[in-house]
Specification:
It is a single chain. The protein is an alpha+beta fold. Helices cover about 45% and strands about 20% of the residues. It is built from nine helices and twelve strands. A four-stranded antiparallel β-sheet has the order 8-11-10-9. It starts with a strand and ends in an 11-residue tail after the last helix.
Length: about 300
């Protein structure tokens, strides 16, 4: 398919380009109990891959792949294998983060899904997109006020949050998610969740409220043990888990039977899968409430 590359703006042959990098979906599928993945907008449909529009030319795809490969090998896979919780990084991490935030924001702008943004915030979103493009092509040394913040989550063992959703570990450990958040008329950011890793790309937000999570240009340590986040973000995160539970409850009885059959085809694989382990963590905290609320099985 020929067209204008979304990043370099040249008229070239375009590739199917993932919004969230493909290695995340491969990991999600390979470590699931069924070998399939499902998404919130189509919970009754089994999928083999994530959303990938025709966006990037070969050169821009290769540019992104360089940072994606480094991040996958140095952070993502070691984290999910339990090999480490802290990681030293170089300039590649901020490049990777900006490339993901750029894709997510570009997606929401193109689908006109930022109409909940104020007019002022929509202008700032365009400015953030432009600054991120300049940074990716080394036309500027850093993303300026459009900072990238990354959080590493671990399984939840206890909590004192009221009305904690009973699928919280499944949301933390096994969910891929994107969003464009407006926190008032002048504040906003894009949210990219890749399993246990959450990336925040600031459009306009008081970054002083986020401590220990900022990604630096040249080097740093990811996974600080001393970080703090705004209370509103915690509420947002918990509500995302609650919304996922509602979506899972809406899966049709026929599709639930298909999921059950997929698990039963290879029970050893299913019970050793990462998706089953995440469910088990929730069962240990919530008992039967961790299961589907309508059937409670």
């Amino acid at each position: 398919m020929n067209g204008i590359c979304r990043l370099c703006n040249h008229d070239r042959e375009l590739n199917e380009s993932h919004i969230i990098p493909s290695f995340v979906y491969r990991w999600l599928k390979e470590t699931s109990g069924t070998g399939f993945i499902r998404f919130g907008h189509h919970p009754n449909k089994r999928m083999q891959d994530g959303f990938k529009p025709y966006w990037l030319c070969d050169d821009c795809e290769d540019l992104f792949n360089t940072w994606e490969t480094k991040f996958a090998n140095a952070v993502f896979h070691p984290l999910n294998k339990g090999e480490a919780m802290q990681f030293r990084y170089g300039p590649w991490l901020l490049k990777f983060a900006v490339s993901v935030s750029w894709r997510v924001l570009k997606y929401f702008i193109e689908t006109r899904d930022i109409e909940h943004f104020s007019t002022d915030l929509q202008v700032k979103a365009d400015n953030a997109l432009s600054k991120w493009e300049d940074f990716l092509f080394d036309r500027c040394p850093h993303p300026a006020q459009y900072e990238q913040h990354m959080i590493i989550y671990d399984r939840l063992k206890s909590f004192n949050y009221p009305n904690m959703p009973s699928n919280i570990n499944r949301y933390i450990l096994r969910t891929v998610d994107i969003d464009a958040i407006s926190a008032g008329d002048k504040n906003g950011y894009v949210y990219s969740k890749m399993g246990r890793i959450v990336l925040i790309g600031f459009i306009d937000m008081p970054s002083y409220q986020w401590k220990g999570t900022k990604l630096h240009v040249n080097n740093g340590v990811l996974g600080s043990r001393h970080y703090s986040l705004p209370d509103k973000f915690g509420e947002y995160f918990v509500n995302k888990a609650r919304r996922l539970a509602e979506i899972n409850d809406s899966i049709s009885p026929n599709q639930k039977r298909n999921i059950d059959k997929s698990y039963r085809k290879d029970l050893d694989k299913a019970t050793n899968s990462e998706s089953f382990k995440a469910l088990d963590y929730d069962v240990k905290m919530f008992g039967n409430d961790a299961f589907n609320r309508k059937e409670n099985r």
